[in-house]
Specification:
Layout: E1 3-4, E2 10-14, E3 19-24, H1 36-49, E4 55-60, E5 65-67, H2 76-80, H3 91-101, E6 105-110, E7 113-115, H4 117-124, E8 127-131, E9 136-138, H5 152-160, H6 162-171, E10 175-176, H7 177-183, E11 188-190, H8 192-207, H9 211-225, H10 229-243, H11 246-258, H12 264-268, H13 270-277
Parallel strand pairs: 3-4, 4-6, 5-7, 6-8, 7-9, 8-11
Antiparallel strand pairs: 1-2, 2-3, 9-10
């Protein structure tokens, strides 16, 4: 029998002792804010501490959004004032590093927008599968005048190569499912009608295998593919520094005036609006 928790933004469904789903449920846009950090930390702690779980699938209950960017309304100090996590890293990078290095296999099932933190959560998972018609991935941050902070600068080049990683992060453009698949941003893009069954079948197959052997394989792959904690920490430091610069403050203020975090049009077409706020002022 399936069991669910009632966590506000991240709901765990225990499909079986071996196989869990974590569903992001924070409508209307699944914006990630300081209040989300302890919730996601609690989920990752449960994953780390459970002796039976082998596979966890992250998905979303919010139509049109997997997970989107960080909340720009709370003061930055709300986040920077949080104590470091168990790795010694600041809380969000700590959570993503622990998720990636966990012995449990993690899969992101992306239907809707995965922008900013959403893309970074997907990159922290071991595998990513996307809806060909409905998934959109992006690292939009350059358009708002700052750098990413949750890992893409050190994860994406290893995953998709230097040139494509620079294209993704320096353009701030959207990458729909089929292009994300072509680049290697996701493992595979499937017709939306087939996505759920494919991911569920794969998760159940992996969950049927020996837990120690799964962990051994993941540990060996991790050893040759993951960035060091030093690199992850440097990226977060770059984000915190850049988001406080005048250029970022101006861009974010303009985006908020246009309707960021309120108007679906702005959230859905974020590259269009980040382009607009960076146009020279008309005389």
């Amino acid at each position: 029998m399936m069991k669910s928790n009632e966590n506000q933004e991240f709901k765990i469904t225990r499909v079986s002792p071996d196989y869990w789903r974590v569903t992001i449920d924070h409508p209307p846009f699944n914006i990630f804010g300081p209040q989300s950090i302890p919730m996601l930390n609690s989920v990752v702690t449960e994953i780390e501490s459970d002796p039976k779980v082998k596979v966890v699938v992250f998905d979303s209950a919010t139509p049109g959004f997997f997970q989107t960017h960080f909340d720009f309304i709370p003061p930055l100090e709300t986040t920077t004032g949080m104590p470091p996590g168990s790795t010694g890293l600041p809380p969000l990078p700590d959570i993503f590093v622990r998720l990636t290095r966990s012995s449990v296999v993690t899969i992101a099932k992306i239907r809707g927008r995965a922008s900013g933190v959403g893309s970074e959560l997907a990159l922290a998972c071991d595998m990513r599968f996307a809806s060909r018609e409905k998934a959109v991935l992006s690292q939009f941050e350059i358009g708002a005048g700052f750098t990413p902070g949750g890992g893409p600068m050190v994860r994406l080049p290893r995953l998709i190569g230097r040139g494509r990683a620079l294209e993704v992060m320096l353009s701030g453009n959207d990458y729909p499912g089929d292009i994300a698949e072509r680049y290697g941003y996701v493992n595979r893009a499937l017709p939306d009608a087939e996505l759920d069954e494919f991911v569920d079948t794969l998760a159940r197959r992996i969950a049927s295998f020996d837990k120690e052997s799964l962990a051994d394989i993941k540990q060996m792959v991790n050893a040759s593919t993951l960035p060091s904690n030093v690199e992850v920490a440097a990226e977060w430091s770059s984000f915190i520094t850049s988001v406080q610069r005048p250029a970022a403050q101006r861009a974010v203020t303009k985006l908020m005036e246009l309707g960021l975090q309120k108007n679906p049009e702005v959230e859905i077409h974020l590259p269009k609006y980040t382009g607009e706020v960076n146009l020279p002022d008309k005389k």
